[in-house]
Amino acid sequence: MTALLEDVIVVIEDDPDDRHLLARSFRKLGSSVPLRFACDGDEALTLLSGLVSSADQPMRPLVILLDLKLPRRSGFEVLTWIKAQPALRRIPVVILTSSRENSDLRQAYDLGANSFLVKPSQPQALHSLIEQVNGYWLGHNEVAPLMV
């Protein structure tokens, strides 16, 4: 018998203040979807590998929020890895970065990002952005089945 998958939001972000603000924003929105965090590129790959392969508690990422400037492996490397995994490549990846560089924007889309958002510097503006992310990706977007 196959266990039911638990929906999660994966946040790959190295800045603890940004992680805190993101978690607070989802809580303020009343989101019941648990957040799973990774603080660097290597931790992200470990987390994502374990989410879909864990027999104890399999999880289905509904969306991945991915920073580009990460320690160990860059967000670009993580994105490339995600899109190369048959079980993960359909999961929407939203780049959430402070970078306004056109080269980062182009590279992210070339590697398969589904959206590119620049993190605002003000907490209230970040909350408004997360409200829109929540409404679209968790409210309106149809989730593709995982290839497990």
Automatic annotation (TrEMBL):
Record's keyword annotation contains Phosphoprotein: yes
InterPro entries named in the record: CheY-like_superfamily (IPR011006), Sig_transdc_resp-reg_receiver (IPR001789), TCS_response_regulator (IPR052893)
Residues with the 4-aspartylphosphate modification: D67
One Pfam family of this chain: Response_reg
Source species, domain of life: Bacteria
Xref: SUPFAM superfamilies: CheY-like (SSF52172)
Keyword tags: Phosphoprotein
SMART domains recorded: REC (SM00448)
Residue spans crossing the bilayer: none
Keyword Phosphoprotein belongs to the record: yes
UniProt domain Response regulatory: residue ranges: 8-134
Name the UniProt record assigns to this protein: Response regulator rcp1
Organism: Methylobacterium iners
Source taxonomy: Bacteria, Pseudomonadati, Pseudomonadota, Alphaproteobacteria, Hyphomicrobiales
